[in-house]
């Protein structure tokens, strides 16, 4: 019973329902063109969500990801405008992202500051740096072979290249998170940090790594974003940290740490994206779209609580075991 | 440790590749520009009838913006005149990328034409091209998309006309005499700076020899900053006779300051403003006249232009003409631009005809 009621399973089923509903009710929904676009539109959020899932499982959060994306985009623009080769720019920018993550991680682990506070600070800081780098300008005209790489589908499919890359990375993260000692360490840290520490897990080292990974992925997402839109701007990706966190939440990852599955998060990302796409195709106004997404989120937080309240009643004895 | 090592490895590999030479800005820009995808092959037939039942979609910078809504409503009214329909959809925020998914949706829904006020000329380019590949005509209005990604741009007013007419408007009210100042938006706002250049050029003419531009101030399109900048201007230049603020935020903030100060009735303020923001200042006598294009005409013209494109009356080439209902015949200028006309002057007698 408990197994069936798991929230990530419910989200997965909801996703299937939305897809089936869309395919039946809206002729242009389940077409290769539309799906390719809808998936491509989720690429950056999905990529960042991978790193965010690991952080949230370890009871940390990184709110600066969208700003790192913006800084990365601004850097791509400024360096490209300055005549540097795109092949040099991309690794440089991704390294900068790793550095941004390192700063977050050091502040959290070495100074013991809460990640919420640290990354709210760097959210403003990195976005500010992005404006310092590029100002109000927009840089465009990137090499077509690279912009095509950010938009085009893998031949014979409706999966854009960035999404294919996401799938590969998702497999790696899923294995790391759910089938390795490192992954188990993350859950242990999230569930009971002190216990994890005393059982020999290098808590600080692992957290530092997670922040570096998060910054790296966000910066890479910034490169994808810039090439996909063909426009480098300091305000690119403004606010998408909330979309990422919404997807992680919707996917059933517990914000107190220690609980969650990557599958749930991926289903969460897809659910938000496809639902929005479907609502748009049916000319549902932007306001209603926000209301639907908002309600879905509240339900996603509420339902697991309700389930855990109901469960002791059903099984009788487990209430005595004092599961929190 | 694994993610770190992976990242480092990728970085090293990529840098290695980069060292073997790469793609730079100069190697891209030196490549021949893509020819415009507009159907230059299809000849225009100026006498073709406007097709019935056309489906047009207005995609403004953002919805719930009164100005944009008026444009789209006027567009729908025009569409009604030729038995078509027009709807307005769009994002709730005006960020560069927010329009993209709407372009995709409109493409999937199979509209005849998309009319867009682009938030970012380049970010919308790719999706607009995809729409055109499916035979959808693209008309930009208010804020242009990159020219190679649209068929026509309905320009609300030429920069030159805006700049010169602002000076003319002010000169007329201060009797062509005295110190004047400009309150602009940000120091690097492209449109504002172009207008200011034309204002300066206009001021070099003999008829303005007694007028002197003493200062260009920047209110950054921020209400509070524009308010304080106005205050600063008036204190620094006690002989100031007039202020031009070619930005809706600036002119409203300046009017608010002047209306509550001793300068009311002494210093003439004009600029580009919206009737709703300026109404009370026109009524209380702070501002006599200000200008802006007429958004109703903008939407109306955009709709007719889209219909003419879809019906094959025009292809978007320079010199072609089409009939735009009550606005009469219009000619396509260079770079596929159709100019709406000179800015419209709002004053006490007509301001109540407008609600935006």
Automatic annotation (TrEMBL), chain A:
Spans traversing the lipid bilayer: 35-58, 65-83, 89-109, 116-134, 163-187, 208-230, 260-279, 291-310
Keywords linked to the UniProt accession: Cell inner membrane, Cell membrane, Membrane, Transmembrane, Transmembrane helix, Transport
Topology term for the membrane: Multi-pass membrane protein
Subcellular location(s) of the protein: Cell membrane
Stored Pfam families: BPD_transp_2
Lineage: Bacteria, Bacillati, Actinomycetota, Actinomycetes, Streptosporangiales
Keyword set includes Transmembrane helix: yes
Name of the protein described by the UniProt record: Autoinducer 2 import system permease protein LsrD
Highest taxon listed in the record's lineage: Bacteria
Alphabetized InterPro entries for the sequence: ABC_transp_permease
From TrEMBL, chain B:
Ranges of residues in domain Periplasmic binding protein: 57-313
Protein keywords: Signal
Signal peptide: 1-19
Subcellular location: Cell envelope
DNA-binding among keywords: no
Disordered as annotated region, ranges: 25-45
Cross-referenced NCBIfam families: RhaS
Protein's recorded name: Rhamnose ABC transporter substrate-binding protein
Gene field: rhaS
């Amino acid at each position: 019973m408990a197994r069936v009621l798991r929230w990530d399973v419910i989200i997965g089923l909801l996703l299937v329902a939305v897809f089936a509903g869309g395919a039946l009710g809206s002729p242009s929904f389940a077409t290769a063109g539309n799906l390719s676009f809808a998936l491509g539109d989720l690429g950056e959020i999905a990529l960042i969500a991978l790193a965010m899932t690991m952080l949230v499982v370890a009871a940390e959060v990184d709110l600066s990801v969208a700003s790192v994306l913006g800084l990365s985009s601004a850097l791509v623009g400024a360096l490209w405008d300055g005549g540097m080769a795109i092949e040099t720019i991309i690794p440089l920018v991704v390294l900068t992202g790793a550095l941004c993550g390192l700063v977050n991680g050091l502040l959290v682990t070495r100074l013991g500051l809460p990640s919420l506070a640290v990354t709210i600070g760097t959210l403003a800081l990195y976005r500010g740096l992005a404006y310092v780098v590029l100002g109000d300008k927009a840089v465009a005209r990137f090499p077509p072979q690279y912009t095509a790489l950010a938009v085009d589908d893998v031949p014979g499919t409706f999966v854009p290249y960035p999404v294919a890359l996401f799938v590969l990375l998702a497999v790696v993260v899923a294995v790391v998170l759910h089938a390795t000692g490192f992954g188990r360490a993350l859950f242990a840290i999230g569930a009971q940090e002190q216990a994890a520490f005393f059982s020999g897990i290098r808590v600080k080292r692992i957290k530092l790594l997670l922040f570096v990974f998060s910054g790296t992925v966000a910066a890479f997402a910034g490169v994808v974003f810039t090439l996909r839109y063909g426009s480098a701007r300091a305000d690119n990706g403004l606010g998408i940290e909330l979309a990422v966190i919404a997807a992680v939440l919707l996917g059933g990852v517990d914000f107190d740490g220690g609980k969650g599955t990557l599958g749930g998060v991926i289903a969460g990302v897809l659910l938000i994206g496809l639902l929005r796409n479907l609502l748009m195709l049916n000319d549902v106004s932007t306001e209603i779209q926000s209301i639907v997404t908002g309600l879905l989120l509240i339900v996603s937080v509420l339902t697991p609580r309700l389930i855990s309240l109901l469960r002791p009643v059903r099984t009788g004895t487990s209430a005595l075991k004092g599961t929190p | 440790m694994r993610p770190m090592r992976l990242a480092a490895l990728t970085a090293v590999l990529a840098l290695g590749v980069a060292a073997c030479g790469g793609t730079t800005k100069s190697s891209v820009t030196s490549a021949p520009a893509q020819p415009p995808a507009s159907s230059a092959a299809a000849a225009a037939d100026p006498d073709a009838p406007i097709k019935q039942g056309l489906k047009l979609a207005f995609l403004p910078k953002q919805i719930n913006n009164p100005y944009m809504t008026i444009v789209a409503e006027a567009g729908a009214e025009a569409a009604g005149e030729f038995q078509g329909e027009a709807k307005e959809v769009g994002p709730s925020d005006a960020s560069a990328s927010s329009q993209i998914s709407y372009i995709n949706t409109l493409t999937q829904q199979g509209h005849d034409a998309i009319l867009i006020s682009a938030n970012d000329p380049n970010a919308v380019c790719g999706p607009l091209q995809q729409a055109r590949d499916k035979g959808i005509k693209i008309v930009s209005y208010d804020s242009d998309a990159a020219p190679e990604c649209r068929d026509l741009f309905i320009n609300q007013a030429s920069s030159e006309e805006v700049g010169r007419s602002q000076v003319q408007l002010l000169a007329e009210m201060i009797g062509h005499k005295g110190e004047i100042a400009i309150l602009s938006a940000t120091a690097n706002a492209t449109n504002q700076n172009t207008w200011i250049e034309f204002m300066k050029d206009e001021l070099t003419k003999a008829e303005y020899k007694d007028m002197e531009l003493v200062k260009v101030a920047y209110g950054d399109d921020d209400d509070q900053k524009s308010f304080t900048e106005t205050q600063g201007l008036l204190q620094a230049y006690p002989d100031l006779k007039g202020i031009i603020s070619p930005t809706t935020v600036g002119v409203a903030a300046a009017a608010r300051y002047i209306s509550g100060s001793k300068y009311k009735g002494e210093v003439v303020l004009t600029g580009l403003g919206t009737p709703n923001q300026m109404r009370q200042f026109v009524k209380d006598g702070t501002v006599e006249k200000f200008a802006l294009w007429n958004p109703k005409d903008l939407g109306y013209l955009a709709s007719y232009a889209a219909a003419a494109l879809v019906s094959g009356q025009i292809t978007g080439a320079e010199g072609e003409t089409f009939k735009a209902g009550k606005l009469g015949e219009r000619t396509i200028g260079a770079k596929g631009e159709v100019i709406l006309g000179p800015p419209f002057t709002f004053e006490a007698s007509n301001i109540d005809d407008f609600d935006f």
